[in-house]
Input
Amino acid sequence: MTQRQARRAIAAAMAVLGLSITLAACGGGSDSGSGGGEGTPAPTDGTLVVGLLGDIGQPPDPDVYYASNGLAIVLNAYEGLVQYKTNTATAEIAPRLAESWTISPDKTTYTFKLRKGVKFHDGTDFTSAAVKASFDRRNAVKGGAAYMTAGITSVDTSDPYTAVVKLDRPNAAFLDYLASPFGPKMQSPTGMKKNAGSDNAQTYLQSNDIGTGPYVLSSAQPGAKYEMTQFDGYWGTKAPFTKIELPIYQDASALELAFDQGDVHLIAAALPSSSLPKYKDSSKANSYLLPTFQGAMITNNASRDFFKTPEARLAWLQYFDRATLVPQVFGERSEIATTMYAKGMLPEGKDVQAIDYKPEVFETYAKTLPKGTKLLIGYGSGNQNGEQVANIMAAKAQALGIDASTRGYPLAQVFGWINDPPSGPDTFVDGNNGPDGGAPYMWGHVFWDATGGINYFGCQSPKVNALLDEALKTGSVDTYAEAGTEYGKTGCYMNFTYNKNWVLAQKWLAGVPEAQNLSANELDFSKLSIAK
Output
């Protein structure tokens, strides 16, 4: 099973992560000095309530979980060797359980100097033995993100606070693998052995954790609520919140009402863009638009007659005025994408997306079509932005005499198209999606290679795949840029928008931008505080 086939198998039941722009507090204000303001008062019992829209869908096991809605649990119970730097709009690798590292010139050996004084939640010490055991467990479980450790041939643990990791081939993106929210997290070797059972502790980790993070998973009630308790032995900073409650709401309007009533203190990336204006100038809440890798995309199905040729596919992508469409549908949460990769993955100007607004090109193509030609435009069920874009597209196509219609698809069906591309729609509007991490390979391979997991219709170029594989070895910006240029010529894909993580917080909650890095739509709860 390839790395992305594994992802498809898991993501079929869940939204994919789900995900660079300048940090900004939207309208309602600042992190400091506002106190309770006119909103609800800060809690006095040390409990922070974080609302979830829908259940997390999978156990919060770091080697199994491969979606977005449960990352708040995984990223606060576990830590990796490195992470992406917080409170910045660029992908910078920062220390976590490794204080420093060196990379061999051939990019096959990574040496990590480990942080001392770190305890697992079971009270045992974090050492290099845990690095090897954690990598081994990921390979044994073979979850969706197992590709991140599959190339490891050995981990030297002779020094308890040095881990020397050897790879089977050069990999310039390995640190990004480790920094990914889905990257390997450190787990207690003692906990793994004690609770191994017959499934490498997978049953145990459905409702428990064996991490080093600032919070312990203390209760798991799928479909209802999850709870986390502050870990007294945590090595890092501690928030004033000794308990985190994560209640589950099945409806966005119910979640929004709970926030308005003060029953929920924090919502991350859950409410629709249509709710944004309500909170823009609110005196009772702070609304933040924070950086992510994520965006909306258009994917064309080359296996269907309507888009058999690159010319037809490119004509369709040039038919829409994004300068009007993006503000109309996505509002301030998004901006027009101008690059082939996520914003900021390559230096500015290197990966320009050469698709301009030229409606006359598609209008000319439409005249060549037989009368009554059908066009099916798909979108992800439940994604309001994707549905709205699809409806606008259908209306514009109908104006040219095309029998255009729209249809929502559940994710299980979306991820099944790769096995039978003609069974999918002619084109698909992906309202929000993103890569596993900040390396260009983790974008290009995911979206452009048929084995990548989010190339729904398998529209690929052997030349592009070869360029991406070469760039993975060398890290060459020029090679990544060439891959982007070549894939743009296929007309299979358009990077439609750069999306932001919308975080809605009660007025008294401070530290929100400092608690997020652009790799995930979730926050490090240990960095949050109460404004004074």
Residues 1-37 have pLDDT under 50 and may be disordered. DSSP finds 16 helices and 24 strands in the chain. The radius of gyration is 23 Å. The longest strand covers residues 215-221.
